[in-house]
Amino acid sequence: MKLILLGPPGAGKGTQAAFICQKYGIPQISTGDMLRAAVKAGTPLGLQAKAVMDSGALVSDDIIIGLVKERIVQPDCANGFLFDGFPRTIPQAEAMKDAGVKLDYVLEIDVPFDAIIERMSGRRSHPASGRTYHITFNPPKVAGQDDVTGEPLVQRDDDREETVRKRLEVYSQQTRPLVDYYSGWAAREPAAAPKYRAIEGTGTVEQITERALAALGS
Ligand code: AP5
Ligand code: ZN
Fold first, then answer.
1. Three-class SS of residue 84?
2. What torsion do the CA atoms of 206, 207, 212, 218 make, to the nearest 10 degrees?
3. Region labeled NMP — which residues (predicted)?
4. What's this model's pTM, rounded to 2 decimal places?
């Protein structure tokens, strides 16, 4: 199974990715998590990416495409993978097509922008695993601690309200065009196109997981 989770910042891509990846036994490839790991490790890429991410803008297509191409040839991707937060621009999508990546599904999670600010302000994450919580909507078992490791949870630097607004603007301008790109692919090239499915991303985490798995035919 090879699929893309598409949706605005805060749509719940990371939250739902965990369930879908477990169900299909595939790795989650989150370019955001990869960049945050590079920032934490202080690599040259991380140093370059940090300022861009904190501003809410996108890291350059060349860097991202290079990272993903290296990642998808790793042995754990033999049965497929889930892209979370990638592709985010038309050139990134075209690069996957040119590389011969044959996708099964594109799953869009749709959430109105006004619900997103509230989700981001309460988000807490476990950086090592990418597990994501919300202090009200999806709390950890013990406040401030990851459910599995007990390690401390952190707030992302780019979850400040003004950065979230900028990220939503960048989504509308640079990423939203992918909705037409992927949903229109079947009309252009029926044999090569992934199945396009869109689900409503408001409701409880469990309700959305049910919708997602149903949309993927399981
Ligand atoms: P990235 O890490 O990809 O961030 P994003 O797309 O902005 O998405 P988020 O991680 O913010 O949201 P999510 O949809 O995963 O939601 P989550 O499940 O956490 O990218 C960060 C930055 O890296 C970018 O701005 C860019 O600079 C750079 N970057 C990354 N990829 C790139 C690329 N391909 N090209 C260029 N640059 C790139 O949920 C959000 C919150 O809501 C959580 O607290 C969660 O618990 C809560 N929640 C989830 N579901 C529900 C629900 N049903 N009800 C209530 N709350 C819920
Ligand atoms: Zn995420």
1. strand
2. 80
3. 30-59
4. 0.95
